[in-house]
């Protein structure tokens, strides 16, 4: 016996958008929440929601004199990362999802999930969050509306997206939007008390690329629940981008200025927890160079009328890996967080109401760990989860570039691909041309990290760092990249140049050969000098690597031997990669662009195979 029309909030919507109203009503009738709340994105709304979350124990307010308007939260220990096994691309034709995605027919998925959603918001508030990915001033703003039963999601979405009344107003009555449905999957019976972190053992993160819909169930963790991020801006947007001739990529965007004042824009794709946030906010160690941040995770790239490829960051906040972040490695992130207005998830809490995580210098004598237990430096478990995160407004980044709000974006000069590999991959390699660059991107290999549930440290292929985020057939995706190489109006000269980097190569003793972080500015300098045609390179079978004298290592405490080792191209190591690349390519069948097989053949010839 449902009486949907009496659900408070349902009939007082601050919009007359017919499709939106109909969808909200339909979801409310299915999920039977206590009330419906339309989110306006205002400061009072933030105060109210964070206040309620503090009362419920889900958030703990941090010491305002250390981290103003900031909060500490702990998830259920089972709900700490993206769940790739439970992520589905539900295209009508299975071939449009394969071979790297999980697939289920849309009708079947909707049948299954409709039963999960039935009554799933009982006893909870259903929030409606209108949002826009990218500037609201864009010619075609990219709208979404997320329905969720999690106030933590609402608060996080306010940090991560341009949301609320401003987005709803801009949508008017007829703007298209991506419908994003989320539930933690934890209805409350009358009188039942809530847990700190409601979630469900059954999880689905489902995408319907043809109808541009997202259905997420069972998880409150960022990548599974903040649906504007990976679900919309990568999986759904990549399918839109394929149709419309642009690129939606797992890339940071930075602005690099040389001592002479030359400005270059660089985008870089590294797999999850492989260094995008850190590179995007880098403080150069070489004199006279400056880096400014435009984005740390996602880039949408379209050709401009001048034939160059322009990148926009669709996000509004940073959802960054906490461990490893400190004043030495990423001072700009520390400055961003010091300004407050942040939500920390699964880090440790200090006794004076601040946050702490591994990599942040010496630990205090006592902490509350991410499980909520007492922790001391003698404890044998880390105090923070390896995928603990900070969620903070990008506007607080002290080195945010002015161009950040420009809906046109910035013209990209170089694209860096990278991964986390102990061996084989040199510090930096320049591709011979676009097609070779696409080959490098298509064969990125990286050790898995704690950003996704599953084993950590297993080397896997991760094309363009997009393996978990391509919303359609990965073979078609690689073909799309090859097609983009024709350039706008057939002018490939204006395309970015492609490089491949690896900050994570190790010596026989297991230590990192390259100091990384701010010192990566030396690699950026070499990249710019290659663009300018002023740096020497050695041509190797795998591409152009720096001549040992062309990489600026002045003032760096790095032995000749380590420098040689980090730049080395060991033909034997590379020959042993070939069977894995062959096996990887074979997965794609007919869908793999033939030119990528040609690239592999040419590499084999250069390595002296056959
Ligand atoms: P996602 O947000 O998951 O997409 O990750 P990301 O690519 O932005 O990775 P992030 O910059 O947060 O770095 C992940 C981890 O790698 C952190 O623990 C960093 O401290 C560490 N890291 C980043 N850059 C470097 C580097 O140059 N060298 C070394 N050794 N570690 C690094
Ligand atoms: C990633 O896993 O690549 C992230 C974090 O950037 S999440 O938003 O959870 O996807
Ligand atoms: Mn990411």
UniProtKB/TrEMBL annotation:
UniProt keyword list: Cytoplasm, Decarboxylase, Gluconeogenesis, GTP-binding, Lyase, Manganese, Metal-binding, Nucleotide-binding
PANTHER family: PHOSPHOENOLPYRUVATE CARBOXYKINASE, PHOSPHOENOLPYRUVATE CARBOXYKINASE [GTP]-RELATED
Pathway: Carbohydrate biosynthesis; gluconeogenesis
Positions with a binding annotation for substrate: 82, 221-223, 272, 387-389
Binding positions (GTP): 273-278, 389, 420, 517-520
Gene designation per UniProt: pckG
Superkingdom, taxonomy of origin: Bacteria
Taxon lineage: Bacteria, Bacillati, Actinomycetota, Actinomycetes, Micromonosporales
Subcellular location: Cytoplasm
Annotated EC: 4.1.1.32
Binding site for Mn(2+): 230, 250, 297
Enzyme class: lyase
Subunit structure of this chain's protein: Monomer.
Annotated ranges, domain Phosphoenolpyruvate carboxykinase C-terminal P-loop: 246-606
Protein name: Phosphoenolpyruvate carboxykinase [GTP]
Residues annotated as the enzyme's active site: 274
